[in-house]
Write a structure and sequence with these properties.
Largest sheet: 8 strands, antiparallel
Number of strands: 8
Strand content: 5-15%
Helix content: 40-55%
Shape: elongated
Number of helices: 13
Strand order of the largest sheet: 4-3-2-1-5-6-7-8
Radius of gyration: 26 Å
Length: 400
């Protein structure tokens, strides 16, 4: 029997449409939101975990530290001969802390293949004692759990050309869900507001009500960071999002392009000491930096031939936001340009910082903890949301 005098609560059109959008969009992309959120959350403390696990490879023993490192050319040859890979050593990262080992990198990738494993031919990191030439450890980054998590998060391990769209489109939908979720959460008056900020389970035994509160309350607190995470993620996925940010911050639709630098020295034969000359000048210019990365095979990560020798200097460990770019003649090692971080425009600085903001490292360890908690909450939202819908669906069949 139905109750005769049953008055339905009036629902505003905004909340009515928000509820429909929130439900159907959630059901359509919930599983992808779950996978992307979980993989991103597990990736947050990658640096801390890897630095702990690789401590013996990263830090040199006191007795193994010499007065002067061997030449980069010689170290590269030692690595090449010992590993005997079909691909050349692509880069080296040199820490300014003399107690830390050099990191030589093998990286080669093609556009062919429908998944990450087919596209990446090689991605290895080799830790080398720069004073003795001894190889301390070799890590196959291609199959490293954190690298796999990164590419699941980035494009579900699909082809890097179109894989990001399989995550990018659901991320746009997730942004709409976050906005509609805030609209649905928003209380009508002060009395209703009291129960929206925290759990009131004193007399509640029904799991459906508890699940609803988890979705409602935790979703509200996480929504603002989730919006930031989503937008910074879309910055990577879609050029027009990046261009919009660039225009808003600098008045130009594109970041300044690096001018091609030419030097009379480029007509000379290649000097084997070119890398050491560039490294010595970099250390003098940026003595307080953390490390610098130098390309060794004359190509960038996309496989394009480089006309000069670029060196990227990182200001802090585990951070990419403070970057200084030096350009050297690839034959003589002559310094052609120096672009320090403080001379960049606002759009360029943001471009460098976007990755750190997305991962939480920009805000230090506290930021990472907050991002981790927000990530766990985002991972739970598709689950609690589905259970809310399932509970209501089962209840519709029952008549009072």
């Amino acid at each position: 029997m139905r109750k005769k005098h049953h008055h339905k609560k009036k629902v505003s059109p905004a909340k009515k449409w928000s509820a429909k959008l929130h439900l159907w969009l959630g059901l359509s992309v919930g599983i992808i939101v779950f996978i992307v959120s979980l993989s991103g959350t597990l990736y947050v403390f990658k640096d801390e975990i890897q630095n702990s696990l690789r401590k013996e490879a990263i830090y040199l023993k006191k007795e193994d530290i010499g007065k002067k490192p061997l030449s980069i050319h010689l170290l590269r040859e030692k690595v090449t001969l010992e590993l005997n890979e079909k691909y050349p050593v692509s880069a080296v990262e040199i820490p300014l802390d003399k107690t830390k080992a050099y990191q030589f990198e093998y990286y080669d990738k093609s556009k062919k293949g429908w998944n990450y494993f087919q596209q990446v031919h090689i991605n290895k990191l080799v830790y080398v004692n720069q004073y003795t030439g001894q190889i301390l450890a070799v890590y196959d980054e291609k199959y490293d759990v954190f690298n796999i998590l990164k590419y699941i998060h980035w494009g579900l391990l699909l082809n890097s050309e179109w894989g990001p769209y399989t995550v990018g489109i659901p991320t746009v939908i997730f942004v709409i869900m976050l906005i509609t979720g805030i609209i649905l959460w928003w209380p009508k008056n002060k009395n209703a507001r009291k129960g929206r900020f925290w759990f009131n389970w004193e007399n509640v035994k029904n799991w459906k009500r508890k699940n609803y509160d988890l979705h409602n309350v935790l979703g509200f607190y996480a929504s603002f960071i989730a919006l930031l995470l989503s937008v910074t993620g879309l910055y990577f996925a879609y050029p027009y999002v990046k261009n919009t940010f660039t225009f808003a911050l600098s008045g130009s639709w594109e970041l300044p392009k690096e001018k091609e630098r030419k030097s009379p020295d480029s007509l000379m034969a290649k000097n084997e000491a070119v890398f050491d000359l560039a490294a010595a000048q970099t250390e003098k210019l940026y003595t307080k930096s953390s490390s610098f990365r130098m390309t060794l095979n004359g190509k960038n990560k996309k496989g394009k031939e480089l006309k000069n020798l670029p060196v990227t200097v990182y200001g802090m460990d585990g951070r990419y936001s403070e970057r200084n770019i030096l350009t050297f003649d690839k034959y003589s090692g002559k310094l052609l340009s120096n672009k320090p971080h403080h001379n960049l425009n606002t759009a360029e600085k943001y471009s460098n910082a976007n990755y750190d903001i997305h991962t939480g490292s920009y805000f230090g360890i506290i930021g990472k903890v907050i991002w981790f908690i927000a990530g766990l909450t985002c991972t739970s939202l598709p689950v609690t949301g589905f259970l809310v819908w399932w509970g209501k669906r089962k209840k519709k069949g029952k008549k009072i």
